[in-house]
Specification:
The protein is mainly alpha-helical. It is built from 13 helices and 3 strands; from the N terminus they run βαβαααβααααααααα. The chain has a 3-stranded parallel β-sheet. α1 (21-30) crosses α3 (85-92). The longest helix has 29 residues, at 244-272. It starts with a strand and ends with a helix.
Length: 342
């Protein structure tokens, strides 16, 4: 186990030494650790060691913790900094064995990359796993996944990340960028609450859902599917992962499935003499959602995306201009009445 302290300095920064505030602030934190915690204590800083070698013995490249302890004790007694005074006094007051035990567990990683250099550093580390021409989106997906894992560790839901976990993550991301797959936006699931559905109240696809008397719970979930699918399409197009022509072809396949099912259900309704047109419309929507086999890519099988595309087609946003799909058996007539009224 390792406990980390990270010190990031924007712009030019002073070198780190035995008198540095960063070092003493960190030691103050680590002096609070119970004696039975034997973790490696790693201080990662963008600062570099100065011309002297006061803390060189704490690095992995030149390990000499006895020399480093001597330098730290000397700085503790001679520094004139008021900021670090309390922390230095606390360290001096420790038993010599406690001082040695603490310092011997510290590893100093100086000259760490700045945040501005992070993407370049990651690209170099993972260069053999990144599909050609996909560096930006690969790193965005990697950082998105890592952020989720970091939050999980901070909230104690994840105890640690193994090297094999990272390898599996990189392999999976590279696979999502292959020709038969597509990556999911790292911000998914996009936050969407029932009250957010109000922003879509006047949209044509929502009007169509109200014509079939969809209850409020299913209504807002349908709007959520549309919202997520729209965001996902935008993500793919922004990163040039999906040509618009491919999206059009997928929409055409979805429309073909709808047309076959819609005609079948309307013919059956006429044979049975049904007059509950709103319920028939619900059945058309439900059956299409459950039975659709259209996939935008063979290895992308997220049901919410296909359902969202249904609603985009019902809205007239994609597909054949001026010829949307619908659920109510008389939706064409109803849309005509809306157009006449406007």
């Amino acid at each position: 186990m390792e406990l980390l302290q990270v010190k990031h300095h924007a712009g030019p920064a002073a070198s780190i030494s035995a008198s540095s505030t960063d070092l003493w602030r960190t030691l103050n934190v680590w002096m609070d650790l119970p004696d039975d915690v034997a973790s490696v204590l790693r201080l990662v800083t963008t600062q570099a060691l100065g011309q002297n070698d006061e803390l060189l013995g704490l690095t992995s490249r030149s390990r000499d913790t006895d020399h480093a302890l001597t330098q730290i004790l000397q700085a503790a007694r001679t520094s004139g900094s008021q900021v670090t005074q309390m922390w230095r006094d606390r360290f001096v007051a420790l038993d010599p064995r406690q001082q040695h035990a603490l310092i011997s567990r510290i590893f100093l990683e100086d000259s760490a990359p700045h945040a501005d250099d992070l993407m370049q550093s990651l690209a170099k580390v993972f260069r053999f796993g990144i599909p050609a021409g996909r560096e930006d989106v690969f790193l965005e997906l990697l950082l998105g996944r890592w952020a989720v894992m970091a939050v999980g560790m901070l909230s104690r839901k994840i105890s640690a990340v193994a090297g094999t976990d990272l390898i599996a993550m990189v392999t999976d991301i590279a696979g999502q960028l292959g020709p038969d797959a597509l990556p999911i936006d790292p911000s998914f699931p996009h936050p969407f609450r029932p009250e957010d559905a109000a922003d879509y109240a006047e949209r044509q696809f929502v009007t169509q859902l109200r014509w079939i008397a969809l209850d409020e719970t299913r209504l807002w979930k349908s709007i959520r599917d549309y919202h997520r699918a729209f965001a996902q399409r935008s993500y793919w197009l922004r990163h040039q992962l999906l040509p618009e022509g491919e999206l059009d072809r997928f929409a055409a396949r979805v429309r073909d499935e709808w047309e076959n099912l819609f005609d079948k259900k309307c013919a059956q309704m006429a044979r049975d003499g049904r007059t509950d047109l709103d319920i028939v419309g619900q059945e058309i929507l439900e059956d299409l959602s459950e039975q659709s086999r259209a996939r935008i890519r063979d290895r992308f099988e997220e049901g919410w995306f296909s359902r969202g595309v249904f609603h985009a087609l019902a809205d007239g946003e994609i597909g054949i201009p001026g010829d949307p799909i619908g659920w109510h058996p008389e939706f064409v007539e109803k849309l005509g009445e809306l157009l006449d009224a406007s």
